[in-house]
Each structure stands twice: as structure tokens, then as C-alpha cells.
Amino acid sequence: xxxxxxxxxxxxxxxxxxxxxxxxxxxxxxxxxxxxxxxxxxxxxxxxxxxxxxxxxxxxxxxxxxxxxxxxxxxxxxxxxxxxxxxxxxxxxxxxxxxxxxxxxxxxxxxxxxxxxxxxxxxxxxxxxxxxxxxxxxxxxxxxxxxxxxxxxxxxxxxxxxxxxxxxxxxxxxxxxxxxxxxxxxxxxxxxxxxxxxxxxxxx
Amino acid sequence: xxxxxxxxxxxxxxxxxxxxxxxxxxxxxxxxxxxxxxxxxxxxxxxxxxxxxxxxxxxxxxxxxxxxxxxxxxxxxxxxxxxxxxxxxxxxxx
Lengths: 204, 94
Hints:
The complex is a heterodimer.
Chain A: H1 25-54, H2 61-64, H3 67-93, H4 96-126, H5 139-171, H6 177-203
Helix pairs in contact in A: 1-5, 1-6, 3-4, 3-6, 4-5, 5-6
Chain B: H1 10-32, H2 36-54, H3 62-93
Helix pairs in contact in B: 1-2
């Protein structure tokens, strides 16, 4: 019998199996996606910040917008985040009815937010605001407004679609608690972005 | 053990909700007074509340938290470094 040479196997310090971050790959990927999406909005807001610095003057937000409406929108989105988190908690507990109820409440909150945003847009457009100009003296004011809130609104819409699909799947008994949690992560991210937009665009 | 009547952590979420609303109202007043540094503190507080409680980062392994926080800090630092000096320069020219 001839002796076989031992085969040298490369050893990794991580033995494989469970993710080193302690979460399943789906959740990790959702977090990585959220970070990349956050970079998108960070870029927009940074560009907007530069625009503010480089502009000799800027319209006074309290004169252009009804800040009570914007505060209401913020309230609606924060509340929808709370109902979303409740839905996730209910899913982890296995209470299907509660999950569906709170998913529907979250969707309702999202739709309300979009409706209020659409109302705001139509109000501004009716006053002459567009991507190329507006009556308040700084053309890029309305351009940055529509781009930033437009991108955020499209994220809200995507979230609503995701939540609707999740609600349907839960009704059919085909969704796992982890899936509801992933949808929740995206929804909370959308709320988080709004916190930044609300402060930087409407308050400062 | 989870209480069957009150699923996982629900109370935490609604306490967080209340704090977020309080912070929003406070920031509204800070905004009308244009107190920018305090507004930035407010943003960080709100973001921490949402990230830690709603997004469960408080209960995740630290490695995951590190990914998120370091990415955000690095991005903010890079954007700030790239924009601030140019912005201030232009501001001084105006």
C-alpha cells in the first residue's frame, strides 16, 4: 500500500454555517440594500446642502409650505412605522389576524402620506413651480423639491406595494415572520429618510 | 416568555412612537428658530430611536450594527469633506 500525501486544505477562520452577523442572509441583504439606498438619499441631500450654501438667497420654507400639513405627514408616517413594527411583533408571535390588521393600517398610513404629498405637489404646481422654475426667485428650489420628495414618494409607493403583497401572502398563510420583518425594515428606512428630508428641506 | 395577550415588544414600539412625536414637535420649534446644531442633535436622536427600536438594531449582533453605523458615518464624513470646503468657499465669495 502506498502512502498518500496529505492534501493541504485551506482553512478559513470561519467554519461556515450560520452567518457571522448572526442573521439569515435575507436580512443581511436587506440591510445592505438599505445602506445603498441611504447613500442615494445622502447624495441628494448633500447636493441640496451645497446648493443652499452656493445660493445667495433661498425662499423661506414657512412662506412656501404649510408646515402644519408637513407635520401631519410626518405624524402619519411615524405612526405607520409603529403599526408596522406591531405587525412584525405579531408575526413573530404567530397571530395572523393581528398581522393582517396592522399591515393594513400601515398601508393606509402610507396611502394617506402619498395623498397628502400629491396634494402638496399639485398645490405648488398650480402656483407655477416646476423642475425649471418657480415664483419664489430661485429656480433650483422647486427642482430640488420635486426630485427629493419625488424619489422619497416613489420609495413610499414601492413600500406600499411590498406591504400589499405581504398582506396577501399572510392571508393565504404563505408568509413567514421573517418576510414581514424584512418588509418592515424597508418601511422603517422610508420613514427614516423622511425624518432627514423633513428637517433639512422644510425646517433648516 | 412572551405573554400571549401582548405579543413581542409591542409596548416598546408605542413608547418609541410617543418619543418620536415629542421630538418632532420640539424640532418644529427649533426649526422656526433656525437652531441648526440642535436640529442635527434631534435628527440623530430620531434616527437612533427608529434604528434601534423599530429596526431592531438594539437586539441584533453588534457586527450588524457596526456595518450600518460605520457605513453611514463614513458616507457622511466623505460627503461633508467633499462639500463643506467648497460650499464655504463659495459662500465667502457671495
